[in-house]
Design goal:
Elements lengths: L3 E4 L20 E4 L6 E3 L5 H9 L3 H13 L3 H13 L3 H15 L3 H4 L2 H8 L4 H7 L4 H7 L2 H10 L6 H21 L13 H20 L29 H5 L31 H17 L3 E5 L13 E6 L3 E6 L4 E5 L4 E6 L7 E7 L6 E6 L4 E5 L5 E5 L7 E6 L3 E6 L3 E6 L12 H10 L10 E6 L5 E7 L2 E6 L4 E5 L4 E6 L6 E6 L3 E6 L3 E6 L5 E6 L5 E7 L7 H20 L6 H5 L30 E6 L3 E7 L5 E8 H4 L1 H15 L6 H9 L11 H11 L28 H10 L7 E6 L3 E6 L4 E5 L5 H6 L8
Antiparallel strand pairs: 1-2, 2-3, 4-31, 5-6, 6-7, 7-8, 9-10, 10-11, 11-12, 13-14, 14-15, 15-16, 17-18, 18-19, 19-20, 21-22, 22-23, 23-24, 25-26, 26-27, 27-28, 29-30, 30-31
Pfam family, one: WD40
Keywords: Repeat, WD repeat
Protein name: WD40 repeat-like protein
Length: 800
């Protein structure tokens, strides 16, 4: 390689390419003009080195300085770079910082595969995750992964209706197929030569997004605007102004299918990228949060059955029991009939009659085609099995119990009934042999005697449980166990296989009317006007909810924490116990609460804790969406939620008369006329006598006179077991309808205003529905008429 020799002295002014020597001892250095490499010949002076560097062409000069800096230690390079930056103008420094940004901030989404980023995102909260979606288009694609939001949906304790999800996806696939067949395909437009390069960049960008969709589920988006497509065809997202998670979740969805390159701006119900549509879990998550917000804020749309335009479809007398699913509601009445209602139209579609000869007190139905049954029990002691789809009577068990059948539950294998005769009975729902697992072990020997080789016919009595000292008012069945509530003020847990009572729960001071059991806790309502929560494992009372002023007749709870392990709940309970024991050691006296009989509504404060050693924390556990709904003879429905201290408090009080106020006002007019001295016409008298149930006291039924009087009447403190109360002489008995119309008419005139004592309620993710002494069934729909919530709620299952 050719080299030039350059002599450096103090008087060198630059610009000359010649080199010369002042003396034999002067320093010289050889610089390669091609790459600026310096060959050391002797130690140069600072001025001579500077002159030599400045004499190089710009590109060679930069390469020389860079190679020289790399020879320096880290600290010296840093100081040199800082000094160099200080010598520049501000605009130049900003330009350099912008060029350094990619080195200062590495984007993990660029370098990590989607599987890894998804695991990282699972450690963020939904609000933080939505903020991450504003970082870039790639972050947006990863954050809005549908499977990621499915995990967040499950973490909230919400359950989907998987059967409805599959059905909806199949229906959407058929719709898209029909649409594609009926849509004419446009021939591809031939692009001019000048557009070919731009078309290629668009295709590559689209392949990137589509490749991600193929490998990693469906990407959906929220509602931010997309700027018009730029000159090179790359659409860019506008800046998102997401202030909080609530801001995002309050936006109404609006599907935008205008671009195939990016996720649609509004999260649709189904993905828009595939011929095999799948539910968009971000959309479901968003709508479920909006629905929960309606519950918290009390936003609902009231409704009633029958529809106000069709009052003739109402039951003739009060409604004792209801159950509803997403589409249907079934009601049982004192008029001895069962009605099936369409919740969408609020119309009666079928009446089941001709089997019961007294009030229908309890029922359960399963409309699935493989089940298709309604089971009912009544004051006549009958249990009747009906075909849901036709109303046909399948079987009538007229000797199921010796007294009124007060409650029943069934699953795919067993039917459980309980009665005022103080017994619980277990029946098989299908024909089985004795060695089948559904047959209780304790009953097999007796059944083998009667059926040594023959199968056991369906609805055969397998086992009778006895142990309560009064009417068994309510039962629940869960994973081989039965929990029963009785007028003897106790709750009992039973093992179906052995037929033994495994645990007795005490705490209520009067008869217990209703009970719910989910495997971890028992929730009950009583004539002592309270709702109580018990630990199923230890029988400890972990919460007492005072709020009603009369008998708590019906209760339902959803805690939403079945995804939380029992070990985690127990650890939470132990932490509360430790605080309690620490408070005692520090001189406090937390035991005084139990001595004074004070109850705890769920607080973990040692001064309020009333039970230790439980397997679940005070209040029973649960998550942010936990909810208890109770109905009472005080004519109110209370929605209970936990406050910041963990206490259950009334979040909302609902009243039926607020819904029925128009109907009430129409009934006030005849009363006002009577007060003014106007006599009712013959037509009015006939109409009053034709509806004897309106205003009739509930105690006009044998069931009401004994069972409900037993619940409502106080029990003497010295008596441990409260037996059935004997009705007084003024109590009206009505068992099989043996009184004439005139007898009922007298009661109707005495109690013209209908009572709204709540008998039964049920709620799901969207609605509360309840029945009462009124003939009209009322409900509160928390979708509040929102079409998106109504659409999404089809896929919402129960919250465990």
């Amino acid at each position: 390689m050719a080299q030039e020799e350059m002599k450096v002295d103090e008087g060198y002014s630059g610009g000359s390419e010649e080199t010369r020597s002042l003396s034999d001892s002067d320093s010289t250095m050889l610089i390669d003009p091609a790459d600026g490499h310096v060959s050391k010949s002797s130690t140069p002076t600072q001025e001579s080195l500077l002159s030599g560097v400045l004499s190089l062409p710009p590109d060679q000069r930069s390469a020389f300085i860079a190679s020289l800096l790399r020879l320096l230690p880290e600290s010296e390079r840093s100081d040199t770079a800082y000094a160099a930056l200080r010598s520049l103008r501000t605009s130049s420094i900003a330009s350099i910082v912008e060029r350094l940004n990619p080195l200062l901030h590495l984007d993990p989404v660029v370098f990590l595969p989607p599987e890894i980023t998804s695991q990282i995102f699972l450690h963020l909260s939904p609000s933080d995750l939505l903020r991450c979606s504003t970082a870039s288009r790639l972050w947006r694609e990863r954050v809005l992964d549908s499977n990621l939001w499915r995990t967040f949906y499950a973490r909230e304790g919400w359950m989907p209706d998987t059967a409805e999800v599959r059905s909806g996806e199949a229906a959407e696939a058929r719709r898209r197929l029909v649409f594609s067949r009926n849509t004419p395909q446009k021939p591809p437009r031939r692009k001019p030569d000048g557009e070919l390069e731009r078309s290629g960049s668009i295709k590559r960008a689209k392949e990137t997004v589509d490749g991600w969709n193929e490998q990693h589920s469906i990407l959906e988006a929220d509602e931010d605007a997309i700027k018009p497509e730029s000159e090179d065809g790359a659409a860019s997202l506008s800046a998102m102004t997401l202030v909080s998670e609530a801001d995002y979740l309050d936006i109404s969805p609006n599907i935008d299918l205008s671009s195939n390159m990016l996720p649609p701006l509004s999260p649709p119900l189904y993905n828009t990228y595939s011929n095999s549509p799948r539910i968009n879990w971000l959309y479901l998550y968003k709508q479920r949060r909006r629905l929960e917000e309606n519950w918290n804020k009390g936003r609902f749309k009231a409704f009633q059955l029958p529809h106000p335009d069709h009052p003739e479809e109402a039951h003739n007398e009060c409604v004792y029991t209801i159950q509803h699913s997403r589409d249907w509601l079934v009601s049982g009445s004192r008029d001895k009939t069962i009605a099936i209602w369409d919740l969408e139209t609020q119309r009666r579609i079928r009446t089941l009659s001709g089997a019961h000869i007294a009030s229908v007190l309890c029922l359960q139905f399963d409309e699935r085609p493989e089940q298709d049954i309604v089971v009912s029990g009544g004051s006549d002691s009958f249990v009747v099995i009906w075909r849901f789809s036709t109303g046909r009577i399948i079987r009538k068990m007229d000797d199921a119990h010796t007294e009124s059948v007060l409650n029943l539950r069934f699953d795919d294998d067993l039917l459980i009934t309980c009665s005022k005769d103080k017994t619980i009975k277990i029946w098989n729902r299908r024909e089985v042999f004795v060695d089948n697992d559904i047959v209780p072990a304790v009953a097999k020997r007796q059944l083998e005697i009667g059926n040594p080789m023959n199968p056991i016919k369906e609805y055969t009595l397998l086992l009778t449980l006895m142990g309560h000292g009064a009417a068994v008012n309510a039962i629940q069945m869960h994973q081989g166990q039965i929990v029963s509530a009785s007028g003897d003020r106790t709750i009992k847990a039973w093992d179906i296989n052995t037929g033994t009572c495994t645990r007795t729960f005490t705490g209520h001071t009067k008869g217990i009317a209703c009970v719910q059991y989910d495997g971890r806790r028992i929730v009950s309502g009583s004539s002592d006007n309270t709702v109580r929560i018990f630990d199923a494992a230890t029988s400890a009372e972990v919460a007492c909810l005072p709020g009603h002023s009369n008998l708590v007749r019906t209760v339902q709870a959803r805690f939403g924490d079945m995804g939380v392990s029992s070990e985690e709940l127990e650890a939470d309970a132990r932490a509360v116990d430790d605080k309690f024991h620490d408070a005692r050691m520090n001189g406090l006296n937390p035991d005084q609460n139990r001595a004074r009989g004070q109850r705890n509504a769920g607080s973990s404060n040692p001064s309020e804790v009333c039970a230790v050693g439980a397997k679940i924390p005070p209040g029973g556990g649960g998550n942010a969406w936990s909810r208890i709904v109770s109905g009472s003879y005080d004519e109110t429905v209370i929605i209970w939620k936990k406050d910041s201290d963990g206490k259950w408090v009334p979040s909302r009080r609902l009243r039926q008369d607020e819904i029925l106020s128009n109907r009430r006002r129409s009934r006030v007019q005849p009363a006002a006329a009577a007060a003014a001295g106007l006599q009712p016409t013959a037509t009015q008298r006939d109409r009053d006598n034709a509806n004897p149930a309106e205003g009739v006291d509930l105690f006009s039924d044998t069931y009401a006179a004994t069972y409900m009087a037993q619940l409502a009447a106080p029990t003497p403190p010295a008596q441990n077991i409260a037996g059935p109360a004997t009705p007084g002489p003024a109590t009206h008995h009505h068992h099989h309808g043996h009184h004439g119309a005139g007898h009922h008419a007298r009661h109707a005139h005495r109690n013209r205003d209908e009572s709204n004592r709540v008998f039964k309620l049920q709620f799901d993710s969207r609605r509360i529905v309840c029945c009462s002494q009124n003939r009209v069934i009322v409900g509160w729909d928390f979708a509040a008429g929102d079409a998106d919530l109504e659409q999404a709620s089809r896929f919402f299952g129960e919250t465990d």
